[in-house]
Design goal:
This protein is mostly helical. It is built from six helices and no strands. It has a single domain, classed as Alpha Horseshoe (Serine Threonine Protein Phosphatase 5, Tetratricopeptide repeat), CATH 1.25.40.10.
Length: 105
């Protein structure tokens, strides 16, 4: 856990120096997701997506964070964008299906 917090500090320093690094914003968001800081993860991943709109992994993790926050419609939208970019990712189809099932409850 402590190492993940150190990673966040490193990403913060990196984007202070150069704020247009989409992979850095994504990695920061992914670590925040792992720390279950879902709102913060979404904020960071949104910055990655703004810099690189076709970043399918970012759309996927954004969907996962939204899913964890039970914002299923938004999660499905993120999964759909990821699937538009990268059509044949089976895990995307699976998590999208799960979000649809949760939405119906």
């Amino acid at each position: 856990m402590e190492r993940l917090e150190e990673a966040i500090s490193s990403f913060d320093k990196a984007v202070e120096i150069k704020s247009d690094l989409s992979e850095c914003w994504y990695d920061r968001g992914y670590v925040l997701y792992e720390l279950e800081r879902f709102e913060d993860a979404i904020t960071s991943i949104d910055k990655a997506i703004n810099l690189k709109p076709d970043f399918h992994e970012a759309w996927y993790v954004r969907g996962l964070a939204l899913h964890m926050l039970e914002r299923f419609e938004q999660a499905i939208t993120s999964y759909d964008v990821a699937l538009e970019i990268k059509h044949n990712v089976e895990v995307l189809q699976e998590v999208r299906y799960l979000a649809l099932q949760n939405l119906k409850k």
